[in-house]
Write a structure and sequence with these properties.
- The chain is mostly helical.
- It has one domain.
- 56% of the residues lie in helices and 0% in strands.
- The longest helix is centred in the middle third of the chain and has 21 residues.
- The protein is globular.
- The N and C termini lie far apart (30 Å).
- The mean pLDDT is 91.
Length: 104
């Protein structure tokens, strides 16, 4: 299930925070657009996202994030803000890619 964003907000965030074309024919998901915006947001954009979407939806974006979508610094920033705002336990670290040599 994708995270739905108001179309105007999704378009604005995608235009601001993506400087490359989508891979393949599929458009970017709302979850990917939101995660990229959260990862790179200025403080003004942080406040705008909190107001427009609320802490519950933002914490859901963190829980649905894929490896590489959040830097450790951004993850810690949002984890602190959103855990305090929602009372929800969020993982201490962002999702990471794992590569096991035995599977190669």
């Amino acid at each position: 299930m994708d995270i739905s964003l108001p179309p105007d907000l999704a378009s604005d965030l995608e235009r601001k925070y993506f400087w490359w074309e989508p891979v393949g024919a599929q458009p970017r998901s709302g979850a990917r657009i939101l995660a990229q915006a959260m990862d790179l947001a200025s403080f003004a954009d942080v406040r705008m996202l909190e107001t427009a979407l609320g802490p519950a939806r933002l914490s859901e974006a963190m829980l649905r994030a894929e490896p590489g979508w959040f830097s450790e610094r951004s993850w810690e920033f949002w984890r602190g803000r959103l855990a305090a705002a929602t009372g929800r336990a969020l993982p201490e670290e962002p999702p990471r890619r794992s590569l096991h040599a035995a599977t190669l």
